[in-house]
């Protein structure tokens, strides 16, 4: 890892706020020798000592520069949602004035050259989040702690789930395909000043699953204060994705996806004017279909350097002045004529062709925005994606009838005549679910995972600026990042980019 991160890790055991702990405890246990277990006992008495460090994990998810660069494509989790949507080609860059994403991502130069900043930025962001989670866990008594205090249990569960989410993202973005024995990433599961060699995919996914299973246990009975926090249903959703990425145990994928959506308290977004389409929009965390998301407001400090600043025509944005991010034309044309999701995109050929003008937009709906301050919210997970993942898993199990029933619960709310679903089975049903996933979740950072699960080959439409009409396999090396140059220089245990 880069030296600056290693220095932070070395400082990771510094204690936070212990001056407020019980005096007799500190008299018996000098702070310079305090262990994770002893610190966990202190935190059990006052969970507020660590609440801030866990909250910081969530704040990092929408803060600019958290990938270690000053780039206008560096703004937390949604930055990597754009990266992945562009790499799988469902999001096309149809115009380029300022150059963001063009050479590095859409021309796939960064994914072939480890000196490009995007490799470092992505790596740095997720390993920083892993460090943040490990710091929080160390202060909570360690990842194996079993605290009695419900608040502390919830904090530990959230930290474990956050670490698992970051390792899952790294495993997807830095490996061409799933292969259990392939070494891919250093596995920092504890605070350490040592650099580590790459662990295999089986080991990485093993930790991801272990963390999430533990998190699910610890989050039992936890009621979160806001959707920005991970609760048990979100942890189950992440676990469903992690198992599905290994293309096995589809029964578990179906079960966890089903539990995630049904236990979340969310509902499928209906095709009504106040929640969907021309008068709706994916801009409000209070949307009853959002399982995980964050309220972006005047105090969030989010402006031009954001998802909205890159994609939304109705924000103060690059998208409004020529750097247009749109739906791939072939993907748009593959939707049925009676599909309401077609209405989310501007379908008149021209400068704004296939921009998501009616899906994701600032609620003021003023072109180029009236303020540099973003107030539209971020979505990380929603009800519909769990429906689609459950249907996919059931279809892969050969349970076509059940898969069609689950799929109907979504499609019946998206097309006028969904009867064609009843004739689908086998691979044709799996293919339909894959396409439904791409149509439903465009711009939300999930199509890339679906491409890899389905081992799909993508063909770029006419509205891309590069590789128009080219077909690219899911495991093409150009679709995944390289271990960055700085990591290879600073970590003697890694001596190659792959």
Automatic annotation (TrEMBL):
<dbReference type="Pfam" id="PF07980">
    <property type="entry name" value="SusD_RagB"/>
</dbReference>
<dbReference type="InterPro" id="IPR012944">
    <property type="entry name" value="SusD_RagB_dom"/>
</dbReference>
<comment type="similarity">
    <text>Belongs to the SusD family.</text>
</comment>
<keyword id="KW-0998">Cell outer membrane</keyword>
<feature type="domain" description="SusD-like N-terminal">
    <location>
        <begin position="98"/>
        <end position="221"/>
    </location>
</feature>
<dbReference type="InterPro" id="IPR033985">
    <property type="entry name" value="SusD-like_N"/>
</dbReference>
<protein>
    <submittedName>
        <fullName>RagB/SusD family nutrient uptake outer membrane protein</fullName>
    </submittedName>
</protein>
<dbReference type="InterPro" id="IPR011990">
    <property type="entry name" value="TPR-like_helical_dom_sf"/>
</dbReference>
<dbReference type="Pfam" id="PF14322">
    <property type="entry name" value="SusD-like_3"/>
</dbReference>
<keyword id="KW-0732">Signal</keyword>
<feature type="domain" description="RagB/SusD">
    <location>
        <begin position="370"/>
        <end position="497"/>
    </location>
</feature>
<keyword id="KW-0472">Membrane</keyword>
């Amino acid at each position: 890892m880069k030296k600056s991160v290693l220095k932070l890790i070395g400082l990771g055991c510094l204690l936070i706020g212990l001056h407020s702990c019980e005096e007799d405890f500190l008299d018996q246990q000098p702070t310079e020798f305090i262990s994770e277990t002893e610190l966990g006992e202190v935190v059990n008495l006052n969970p507020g000592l660590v609440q801030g460090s866990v909250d910081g994990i969530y704040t990092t998810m929408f803060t600019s520069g958290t990938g270690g660069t000053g780039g206008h494509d560096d703004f937390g989790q949604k930055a990597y949602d754009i990266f992945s949507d562009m790499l799988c080609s469902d999001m096309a860059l149809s115009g380029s004035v300022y150059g963001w994403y063009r050479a590095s991502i859409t021309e796939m130069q960064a994914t072939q050259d480890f000196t490009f900043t995007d490799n470092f930025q992505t790596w740095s962001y997720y390993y920083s989040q892993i460090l943040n989670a490990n710091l929080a866990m160390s202060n909570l008594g360690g990842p194996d702690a079993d605290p009695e205090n419900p608040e502390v249990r919830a904090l530990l569960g959230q930290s474990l789930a956050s670490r698992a989410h970051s390792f899952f993202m790294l495993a997807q973005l830095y490996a061409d395909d799933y292969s259990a024995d392939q070494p891919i990433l250093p596995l920092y599961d504890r605070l350490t000043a040592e650099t580590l060699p790459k662990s295999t995919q089986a080991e990485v996914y093993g930790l991801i699953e272990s963390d999430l299973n533990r998190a699910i246990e610890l989050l039992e009975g936890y009621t979160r204060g806001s959707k920005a926090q991970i609760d048990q249903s979100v942890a189950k959703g992440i676990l469903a994705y992690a198992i599905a990425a290994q293309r096995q145990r589809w029964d578990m994928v179906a079960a966890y996806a089903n539990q995630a959506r049904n236990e979340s308290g969310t509902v499928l977004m209906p095709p009504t004017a106040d929640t969907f389409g021309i008068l709706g929009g994916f801009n409000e965390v209070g949307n009853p279909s959002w399982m995980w998301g964050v309220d972006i407001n005047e105090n969030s400090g989010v402006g031009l350097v954001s998802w909205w600043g890159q994609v939304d025509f109705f924000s103060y944005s690059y998208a409004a002045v020529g750097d247009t991010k749109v739906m791939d034309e072939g993907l748009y044309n593959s939707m049925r004529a009676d599909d309401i999701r077609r209405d989310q995109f501007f379908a008149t050929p021209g400068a704004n062709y296939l921009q998501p003008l009616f899906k994701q937009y600032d609620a003021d709906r003023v072109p180029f925005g009236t303020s540099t301050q973003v107030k539209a919210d971020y979505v990380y997970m929603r009800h519909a994606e769990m429906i689609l993942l459950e249907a996919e898993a059931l279809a892969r199990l050969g349970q076509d009838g059940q898969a069609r029933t689950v799929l109907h619960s979504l499609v019946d709310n998206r097309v006028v005549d969904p009867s064609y679903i009843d004739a689908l089975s086998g691979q044709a049903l799996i293919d339909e679910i894959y396409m439904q996933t791409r149509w439903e979740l465009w711009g939300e950072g999930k199509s890339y995972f679906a491409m890899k699960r389905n081992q799909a080959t993508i063909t770029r439409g006419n509205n891309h600026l590069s590789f128009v009409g080219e077909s690219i396999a899911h495991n093409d090396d150009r679709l995944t990042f390289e271990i960055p140059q700085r990591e290879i220089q600073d970590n003697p245990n890694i001596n190659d980019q792959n």
